[in-house]
Design goal:
The chain has about 160 residues and is of the alpha/beta class. It has six helices and five strands. The chain binds 5-O-phosphono-beta-D-ribofuranose.
Amino acid sequence: MANTVVSIVMGSDSDMETMKGAADLLKEFGVPHEVSIISAHRTPDAAQRFARDARGRGIKVIIAGAGYAAHLAGAIAANTTLPVIGVPLDASSLSGLDSLLSTVQMPSGIPVATVTIGKAGAKNAAMLAVEILALSDDSLAKKLEDYRVEMTKKIEEKNRKLK
Ligand code: RP5
């Protein structure tokens, strides 16, 4: 895979520490990706442009993370038919519940695949993106299977150590 196929966007540089988990996972799987800061509220024109241009640039999956009233994933989904995965971030005093509801509660016809709040969500968003890409990429599908096997082994090892 040579061209950039996954785009990770986040509302602010303050989201980077959490969203880095998505980029790290994609790197581990060898999936070419890009990372940008785009805000549904602070740079609404850029968000619209980004979403409208994404398919034409060869992007296949978009991962959007945001905190507070997290409209980034939804605003992007409104302007593209690419799959959009939303990561609700724990950025406010509501511990991410605000972002979860803002991200997940999309009206019918404009889906956002919403994952867990925070770090686990960033990683799962990347896993889901890899799973989508693996539908048409056998070598990626094999890497996913190997990853699962490794994950199982690690837990079994932890259990053994505990006994
Ligand atoms: C959201 O507001 C961003 O996604 C971020 O999680 C939150 C806070 O942004 P900053 O005020 O730190 O830039 O739009």
